[in-house]
TrEMBL record:
Domain of life: Bacteria
The keyword Protein biosynthesis appears for this protein: no
Keyword Oxidoreductase: yes
Protein name listed in UniProt: Phytanoyl-CoA dioxygenase family protein
Source species of the chain: Gordonia aquimaris
UniProt cross-references to InterPro entries, sorted A to Z: Phytyl_CoA_dOase-like
Pfam family, one: PhyH
GO molecular function, a single term: iron ion binding
Phylogenetic lineage: Bacteria, Bacillati, Actinomycetota, Actinomycetes, Mycobacteriales
Length: 279
């Protein structure tokens, strides 16, 4: 489907799994049609406007990810549990080919986190003054819940907008999912890590060759991962990654994100979210 490194078509799942296992991320391209993506865009935009207007239940609007919560009164960077209110999103995130890829990566019992914690989330990142989310610093996903048994997991990002330096992009350290990264005992937000946390998480017990930066610093070996409209980017819960801020003040970067998990689904009401990454 593509000559780009790390990009695979719907009939290339074996190659996708091979690349993912080695590098910690891969892109699935060509699974969703333009009609599919347009429907996701239309329904997510409508849900976003409904959050701003106060027409949806409060559980669909979030401030937990934002750098300035007051901005949520004027703009909604996030719509949580969006698969519950968007048929197009629900169809995309449960597509049989995507589910097959997740089963290959996580095992046959892999489950979609659709109704727990934040569910599947629509995200609208932009650098304007009204926006409460523009970028995020270095982290790995498991660090947000180091006490939970849900891991390992694979996050998916369905890109409504293609990415570039103009509107922001993902930065990753290939192979870092193979390191046993410490829980975020050191973090810029001063968040306390519970005593029940695992001390480290990774696909192996090999420690990282250097400390994970606390903010947005350049990391040895990092690469930029760009996406086209309709791409589905997969990345491992132990992969070091961050998101770069847009350079064009009039741009936006919209996507739908969530994850499939290979560990134990938590009991009702059992949640953990350590907001350790810099914003």
């Amino acid at each position: 489907m593509s000559s780009e490194p790390g990009v695979f078509g719907p009939h290339e799942l074996g190659a996708l799994v091979w690349f993912y296992d080695m590098h910690g991320y891969a892109t699935l391209r060509g699974l969703l049609t333009e009609s599919d993506v347009a429907a996701v865009e239309r329904e997510c935009t409508a849900a976003q406007q409904a959050v701003i207007a106060g027409e949806l239940d409060i559980r669909h609007g979030s401030t937990v990810f934002l750098d300035e919560e007051a901005k949520a009164q004027r703009f909604a960077n996030y719509v949580e549990y969006v698969s519950e209110i968007s048929p197009a999103v629900r169809a995309a995130v449960t597509h049989p080919v995507l589910a097959d890829a997740m089963a290959r990566l996580l095992g046959e019992r892999a489950w979609l986190r659709a109704h727990e914690q934040f569910g599947v989330v629509y995200q609208d990142a932009r650098p304007g003054r009204e926006s409460g989310y523009t970028r995020i610093g270095w982290h790995s996903d498991w660090q947000a819940g180091p006490s939970l048994d849900v891991w390992p997991s694979t996050a998916f990002t369905i890109h409504i907008d293609g990415t570039s330096p103009a509107n922001g992009f993902l930065r990753v350290v290939p192979g870092s999912h193979l390191w046993a990264t410490p829980a975020p005992y050191r973090n810029v937000n001063g968040v306390e890590v519970p005593a029940t946390a695992r001390p480290a998480g990774g696909r192996t017990d090999r420690p990282p060759p250097f400390d994970m930066p606390l903010r947005f610093e350049k990391v040895p070996g990092e690469v930029a991962v760009y996406a086209e409209r309709g791409d589905i980017l997969l990345h491992d819960c132990y992969l070091w990654h961050s998101a770069a801020r847009a350079t064009d003040d009039d741009s936006r970067r919209r996507h739908v994100r969530g994850g499939y998990f290979g560990g134990t689904k938590p009991a009702a009401g059992v949640e953990e979210f350590i907001k350790n990454a810099a914003r």
